[in-house]
Design brief:
This protein has a single domain, classed as Rossmann fold (3-Layer(aba) Sandwich), CATH 3.40.50. Helix content is about 30%, strand content about 20%. It contains 6 helices and 10 strands; from the N terminus they run E-H-E-H-E-E-H-E-H-E-E-E-H-E-H-E. The chain has a 7-stranded parallel beta sheet. Strands 4-8-7 form a 3-stranded antiparallel beta sheet. Helix 2 links the parallel strand 2 and strand 3. The protein is globular.
Length: about 220
């Protein structure tokens, strides 16, 4: 586990883009688990710029969105947001973009199919995830116990199909982004507090290749 602190959110975004670019160069057919949070838009734009400059090639990259809000509970899908932030700006093949379906007759089947799709490519090489003010990671919400694999969560924004803690922990590398002063209270609990279901992101401490990236505002109490 490593903890990296940057001067501000823009510097953090540049560092994140550079780190993710390195992952793609290191393994051109990587399977990436990507967070759909709008706070990553700046980093995604920067990595798209590297791609348009000819520094990166997404032709063999597979991406898996970490979550998707149920269609009936949202106006804008997370998949469409990812296309606007990243996928439409790089040369990734449409068939290599994976996202949980926003509607289903049987959610257990959909979740199982998405989990199997990740397993079919050999698991995720790198996961990029944001941490919420309540300690959530992807959309795994604080609770007395956590679902290990892809499942449906109920959040303040409606129902969400999200990968589970075990799915994230099985990735070869996890990059966790903690940015903004509003995250300064939860940051020390995530990075060095006890590992508890009430702080789902605290489980990332146990990952042998977890990288926590913070700006100075979020790191105030770390």
């Amino acid at each position: 586990m490593s903890v990296l602190v940057y001067r501000d959110s823009d510097t953090l975004s540049q560092a994140l883009a550079t780190l993710l670019a390195g992952c793609i160069i290191e393994k051109p057919n990587s399977a990436l688990g990507l967070d759909c949070n709008p706070s990553l838009a700046s980093a995604y734009r920067k990595i798209a710029g590297m791609t348009s400059d000819g520094l990166l090639d997404w032709a063999s990259i597979r991406t898996f969105n970490l979550y998707e809000h149920v269609k009936q509970d949202t106006e804008v899908s997370d998949e469409s947001r990812m296309h606007a932030m990243l996928y439409d700006r790089v040369n990734i093949l449409t068939e290599n973009i994976y996202a949980p379906c926003a509607e289903a007759r049987d959610w257990s089947v959909l979740c199982n199919d998405y989990e199997n799709a990740i397993l079919d490519v050999g698991g995720l090489d790198t996961v990029v995830c944001t941490i919420g003010t309540d300690g959530r990671v992807a959309c795994n919400m604080p609770g007395s116990e956590l679902a290990p694999v892809t499942h449906v969560e109920r959040t303040e924004g409606g129902r969400v199909v999200t990968v589970g803690i075990s799915t994230i922990m099985a990735a070869k590398r996890v990059i966790a982004v903690i940015s903004g002063y509003e995250l300064s209270r939860i940051a020390p609990l995530v990075i060095s507090g006890p590992v508890l279901p009430s702080v789902p992101a605290s489980y990332l401490q146990l990952h042998q290749n977890a990288i926590f990236m913070l700006d100075e505002d979020a790191a105030e109490h770390v």
